[in-house]
Every structure is written in C-alpha cells, then in structure tokens.
Design brief:
By secondary structure, the protein is mainly α. The strands form two sheets. The chain has a two-stranded antiparallel ribbon. A two-stranded antiparallel sheet has the order 2-3. A hairpin with a 4-residue loop joins strand 2 and strand 3.
C-alpha cells in the first residue's frame, strides 16, 4: 500500500477545510481527521499482513534527496497516535467559537500532516523539512488564537519559534556532514551504515540532542514550555503536548541513538541523569503552580523526562517502555488539558484558587476527571502504569538508584495531582454555575478514558507492533560491541 496516501488525505483536508468556510470548517476538519485515522488503521492491517508499507521516488537531484517514506511498527504506532489525537483534538474544540475558524482548523490538519511526515520520513533531509514544517502552524495557532495579553503572548511564541528553529539548525548541519560521508545520500539505511569515529559521533550526537532536547523539552532547554502551553489556545497546547513533543522522543530512537551508538554508550549515565533531573524538577515546580495549565505543563515535563531516561538506557525494555509511555502520555495529557478547557468554558478562569465545588454540580465530569488524574499518576490498570513500570524496570537494570529516583514521578505526581483535584473539584462552590458537560465533551472524555483502560489492561497489540522495530534499532546500536 502507498503510505503517502495518509499525507495526501491530511494535506487535501487542510485545503478543503479552509475552502469550506468558517461555518463548516469544524465538521470538514473532523471528517478528514477521521479519514486519516481510518487510513492509519488500514495501513496497520496491511503491515500486519506482511506488506511493505513504503514509498520512494527521486525528488531533488542536487543534493540528492528522495521523497522516501517507510513505515515499520514504531512509525505506525506514532502515526496512529498522531491521527487518533488529531481527530480527538478537533472534536474537543467543538465547544469553542473561534474567529476565522476555517484558518485554525486547516492549520491543525496541516500540522498533523507535517508531524505524520516526520514519523514516516526515511530520508534525512525530507525528515528535517517535515520537522520544520510542523513548527509553522503551531506558531500561528498560538500567536493568533492564544490567551492573555497579546504582547506577552507574542514574546512567548516568538521565543519558542526561534529557540526551536535554532536548535534544529544544528541537526541540519549534522545531516549535511553525514550526507558527504555517505557519498551523497540522506537515506536512513545509508546513514546507519556509516563507520563514524567516536569523535565524529560525539559531535553529531550533541547536534541532534540540541534539536531534540528543545522540542521534547528536557531541562535546561525547557524554558519556553510553560509560557507557551499557558498562552496557546487549549487545542494548541494539546497538539504540543500530545503529539509534537513525541517527535523529539521518537527521533531519539529512530535517528540519534542508531547513528551515534558509541557516543550514546559513553554519555549514557549523563543523559539518564538529565532525564531524571527533569522528573524531579518538573514535579517540584508543579507543586507551586497556581494556574491549572501551568501545573499540567510542568507535570508533562516530569513525565517526558522519565521517557527520555528510559530511552537513554539503551536496552529493549527502556525503548519499549518509552514508546508505550509516549502513547499513554499523549492520551492522558490531551484529556487533562481538555478537562481544564471544560472548566475554563464555564468559570472563565484557570486559577486553581478560583475553582471548587464542581463535584456537587457535575458528578459525571468529576468522575471522568478523577480517572484522568489517576491515570496520570500511573494507577495500575491504566495505560500509564504499563509504560512507567517498564521504564523504571529498564533503569533498574542500569542502576537501582536510577529507578528509585525516577520513581519519584509517581510519588510527587500523586501528591500534586490529587491536591489539585481537591482544590478544583471539591471544596466550596464557585459563585458561577457549572453547567453539566455536553454530549461532544462527554464523548471526547469517554474515548480517551476507554483507550487508557483498554491498553492498560491489554497492551499486547502495541507491544507486538513496536517490539520487532525496536529490536532492529537496538541491533544497529549494538553492532559495535
């Protein structure tokens, strides 16, 4: 099957949504979002039947660049995450009234197109182009439809754009260097075959790390995150936290580590430490937040720090746990930000101190919000538990103290998330009436919760999908042993 079909659906959808006009834009966007998700499932079925899910054609002659797409189990897992969350994010926004809605919905689909291309690209320069293309729509979404003071929003978004773009330029330089070493090829299979010296690998490893650490983000490259998550409209925050940061985590496994295995092994302990430091820092800062979106932003920083630590453990359990946690985190963080948006639609505030008493007015919403909170702190039977447990187990194979320190995300997370839930949902009733959730809001929450419980109790389909690809990548990393 031609894997480019899913990109065509998303790109055509972006243009069709814009041409549909403001009134029809949400419905048209949802149609194409669901079509892309359906196409992802069809691709998965073809993959499971043993078909080669790829597409390649010569694109640029000089430098030699191929429009090369390749889907293995790892890529398909991320494409399924991207298309599923795109449809969910569009559905979740039906309660919002956007000015020039045709533009924002078309930008969502275009961003999904770029992110999907990033996960599928098997040519280094094509991958870089998709990587950068994904930055353009979120820049405009946050800048034009964001919250708060316009001048402060502009500063936060411009900082994010320049910071991310600057980091990515180091990655581009690394690709150009490897292109010359590979006799004029950006194809990933040719780059994997390069026999780079340890010193060369160290420089390339660092160049890739700068790009990925900013995008994920990892401390100390996280300074853009909380402000942008707060200032962006909630659907923009969902796109950033649910999908876009996964581009960086995915790229660690797909590009950085297999291309620089010797440097990765030498720097292993340092970057596991960086990831765990993010866990502790993000959790402590989250404890002090008064704004609900900022609290969730720092909670996300803690969780992705643990995912990165598992990735840098360079073992199969670390890779597998990281990918499982990427997917689980995507759904739970989108659900939590959507819950924050539901509250904002009724109370018109994001300050935790101005909330309260929701349980007595909307017990259904309270129950669903509690489930998301418990999933976030990795309660057994939820998807997050599978990913976090596997990552912590992988870290224990390196050093038991890594697992103990990494496990603080569960302890601290339980404290600040349950404390937040108590202040937001219980206590005295806000003076404003909290109207019960609508059908579309309830449907969105139910879909997310169903995914978290299903894969929390039966992760085998995803395990079976991603494990062969991860074993292949790990063999590439270990070929120098």
């Amino acid at each position: 099957m031609n894997v480019s079909l899913i990109l065509i659906i998303l790109l055509v959808g972006a243009f069709a949504t814009y041409l549909a006009g403001d009134k029809l834009a949400p419905k048209v966007a949802l149609f194409f979002g669901l079509a892309a998700a359906g196409c992802s499932i069809v691709l998965l079925n073809h993959f499971n039947l043993g078909e080669n899910i790829s597409y390649s054609s010569q694109w640029i002659t000089l430098p030699k660049v191929s429009f090369a797409l390749q889907a293995d189990g790892l890529s398909l897992a991320m494409v399924l995450l991207t298309t599923a969350l795109t449809a969910i994010i569009i559905l979740s926004s039906f309660g919002n009234d956007f000015k020039n809605s045709k533009a924002i919905y078309s930008l969502i689909l275009f961003m999904s197109f770029a992110m999907t291309g990033t996960f599928l690209a098997s040519d280094g320069l094509l991958y870089y182009i998709f990587w950068e293309l994904s930055l353009i729509p979120i820049y405009f979404i946050a800048l034009i439809w964001g919250n708060g003071d316009a001048e402060e929003r502009k500063k936060a978004v411009v900082k994010f754009f320049i910071y991310t773009l600057a980091g990515s330029l180091f990655m581009l330089v690394a690709f150009i260097y490897m292109y010359q070493k590979a006799n004029g090829s950006f194809l990933i299979e040719d780059l994997y075959k390069l026999n780079l010296t340890v010193n060369e690998q160290k420089w390339i490893f660092t160049a890739f790390f700068l790009a990925y650490a900013i995008k994920i983000p990892l401390i100390p490259f996280h300074t853009w995150q909380a402000n942008v998550y707060q200032k962006a409209p909630t659907l923009g925050t969902m796109l950033l936290s649910g999908i876009m940061l996964k581009m960086g985590l995915y790229s660690l496994i797909r590009w950085q580590l297999p291309l620089t295995p010797l440097a990765a092994k030498e720097y292993m302990f340092i970057f596991i430490g960086v990831g765990i430091a993010g866990v502790i820092y993000g959790s402590i800062v989250a404890l002090r937040q008064k704004d609900l979106k900022k609290l969730l932003a720092y909670s996300s920083l803690a969780h992705v720090g643990l995912i990165a630590a598992g990735t840098y453990a360079l073992n199969l359990d670390g890779f597998r746990g990281a990918v499982l946690q990427m997917i689980a985190h995507g759904f739970v963080v989108v659900g939590l930000f959507f819950a924050a948006e539901i509250i904002f639609r009724r109370y018109e505030t994001r300050l935790i101190s101005e909330m309260g008493g929701i349980r007595s007015q909307s017990p259904k919403f309270t129950s669903m919000f509690l489930i998301l909170v418990l999933a976030s702190v990795a309660l057994p039977t939820t998807f997050n538990f599978i990913g976090e447990f596997t990552v912590l187990y992988s870290l224990s194979q390196i050093n038991i103290w890594f697992a103990i320190l990494g496990g603080t995300t569960i302890i601290l997370g339980a404290y600040y998330m349950l404390k937040m839930f108590q202040h937001v949902m219980l206590g005295e009733t806000n003076t404003k009436v909290f109207a019960d959730i609508t059908f579309s809001e309830g449907l969105t929450m139910v879909i997310i919760i169903a995914v978290l419980f299903f894969f929390g109790m039966y992760p085998k389909p995803i395990n079976d999908l991603i494990t062969p690809s991860l074993e292949t990548i790990l063999n590439t990393i270990n070929k120098y042993n």
